[in-house]
Automatic annotation (TrEMBL):
Recorded GO CC terms: anaphase-promoting complex; cytoplasm
Organism: Notodromas monacha
Pfam families given in the database record: ANAPC3, TPR_8
Designated name of the protein: Cell division cycle protein 27 homolog
InterPro entries documented for this protein: TPR-like_helical_dom_sf, TPR_rpt
Keyword vocabulary terms for this entry: TPR repeat
Family statement drawn from the similarity comment of this UniProt entry: Belongs to the APC3/CDC27 family.
Record GO biological process: anaphase-promoting complex-dependent catabolic process; cell division; metaphase/anaphase transition of mitotic cell cycle; protein ubiquitination
Top-level taxon: Eukaryota
Protein's UniProt keywords contain Membrane: no
Length: 219
């Protein structure tokens, strides 16, 4: 019988080093032996990263998914093969009754990506107002989602960068680990110091002037 942990570790090691065919082979053996949601998610991830979205979709659609990571991956597969209603249902349920706060509580650190996808799904299905709300919520959770910011601009929303690119609250660092937040803060300081040294350059501060820091970066 296959022992789950070492095989999974080998699979993710292959994925991290771009050895996708090896990862697929190992994940297929693992799933054939165990056939759990976790093994299905691992195999579907391998297929997805190897560019075989249909295979990834097939694996997850045959397995009852309950974990946030599995739901999100299934939604991404549905998105790529143009099954948009299924993508939405994978995230919010078939009745579509979940609110944004409920989604944040369920999906945790990946909720910004979930809301960004939902926002695009709502826009594509002619629910523009709801889509804009989801996109704004996603951006408030993770201001590094430039594609989300760009989509809001394309929708004519003209979002104010200072509204989102703020790091003085736990909301805007919800989806950023401590090291990520520290790297951003260092980049902001370095860039603004560089601009100060060259005052004649016609460049404005990229980051809003806000010297406050969050009480504690989210780990």
């Amino acid at each position: 019988m296959i022992v789950l942990e070492p095989v999974q570790a080998a699979v993710w090691n292959c994925l991290q080093n771009f050895m996708y065919s090896d990862a697929v082979f190992l994940a297929e053996r693992l799933h054939a032996e165990l056939t759990t949601e976790e093994s299905a998610h691992t195999l579907a991830t391998c297929y997805y990263k190897a560019g075989d979205t249909l295979q990834a979709y097939d694996v997850l659609s045959k397995c009852p998914v309950s974990k946030p990571a599995s739901k999100y991956l299934l939604a991404r597969c549905c998105w790529k093969i143009n099954r948009l209603q299924e993508a939405e249902a994978a995230l919010v349920g078939s009745q579509g009754l979940k609110g944004f706060d409920e989604l944040v509580a369920e999906f945790g650190d990946m909720s910004c990506f979930v809301l960004a996808m939902l926002g695009e799904l709502y826009v594509k299905s002619e629910r523009r107002n709801l889509g804009v709300q989801a996109l704004r919520k996603a951006l408030s959770l993770n201001p590094f989602l430039f594609s989300t910011f760009q989509l809001l601009c394309n929708l004519g929303e003209s979002p104010n960068p200072k509204e989102f690119f703020r790091f003085d609250s736990t909301d805007s660092t919800h989806n950023l680990g401590t090291s990520c937040w520290q790297n951003f803060a260092h980049s902001k300081l370095t860039l603004n110091q560089s601009i100060a040294v060259h005052p004649h350059h016609q460049v404005t501060h990229v980051f809003p002037e806000d010297h406050s820091t969050p009480a504690h970066p989210v780990s």
